[in-house]
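User: Please fill in residues for this 252-position structure.
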């Protein structure tokens, strides 16, 4: 572990019970020096009870004495064999409470635009459960009528690099399994960096818009001609109006 457990409570104890500098305490507890000073002034961690690192086998008394005598000495966390591998704990991603209500919309977006992603990949991306993903896939979620698909990157539930990595992993799995994909599905498996780096010749129109490639908004000489090959007729040619000279002869 690179920092003690209950780091802020440990900093409170060190501030109250030792003469170690704020910089040393901050480095040991992964806190800013000013934050440790705020703890000493009573502005930060108000009401937090100090956590004794010596009694909890995180520091030794000798290490504290060295730090008190030498302001440049860096506190070293005591090795604890029971804590080895604790930071590699596996589990779903933690999602803040303020963003948990956005997870169904993100799941719906991933299921709709990236159906090749497995439930485990979606769960790892946005920190949700497989039953919730399955309910949205099967449209049996209790609030499915009100859920609108929203990009999880735009909601801050995952990073674009993480989404691209999951998509690339799904693409490799699809290729290994020998599943034949359409052009639209293959374009979905392309990461953002690759799609932005494509040349103009490599971009293709989706099949849903096929047949519209002959239309253009830019004007040219051919657009001014009649599709049958002749010149475009004048608007007056569609009306059989008498000339002004003929009208004068009729009045006479």
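Assistant: Residues filled in for all 252 positions:
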């Amino acid at each position: 572990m690179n920092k003690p457990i209950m780091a802020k409570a440990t900093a409170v104890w060190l501030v109250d019970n030792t003469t170690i500098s704020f910089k040393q305490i901050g480095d040991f507890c992964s806190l800013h020096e000013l934050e440790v000073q705020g703890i000493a002034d009573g502005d930060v961690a108000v009401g937090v009870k100090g956590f004794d690192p010596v009694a909890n086998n995180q520091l030794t008394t000798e290490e504290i004495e060295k730090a008190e005598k030498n302001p440049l000495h860096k506190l070293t966390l005591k090795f604890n064999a029971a804590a080895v591998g604790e930071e590699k704990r596996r589990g779903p991603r933690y999602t803040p409470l303020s963003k948990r209500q956005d997870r169904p919309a993100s799941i719906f977006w991933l299921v709709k635009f990236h159906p090749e992603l497995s439930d485990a990949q979606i769960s790892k991306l946005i920190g949700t459960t497989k039953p919730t993903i399955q309910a949205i896939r099967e449209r049996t979620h209790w609030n499915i009528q009100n859920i609108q698909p929203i990009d999880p990157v735009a909601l801050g539930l995952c990073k674009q690099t993480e989404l691209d990595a999951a998509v690339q992993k799904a693409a490799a799995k699809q290729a290994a399994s020998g599943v034949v994909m359409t052009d639209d599905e293959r374009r979905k498996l392309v990461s953002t960096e690759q799609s932005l780096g494509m040349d103009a010749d490599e971009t293709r129109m989706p099949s849903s818009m096929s047949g519209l490639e002959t239309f253009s908004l830019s004007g040219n000489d051919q657009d001014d001609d009649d599709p049958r090959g002749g010149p475009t007729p004048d608007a007056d040619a569609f009306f059989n109006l008498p000339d002004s000279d003929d009208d004068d002869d009729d009045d006479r």
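For context: The CA atoms of residues 24 and 72 lie 8 Å apart.
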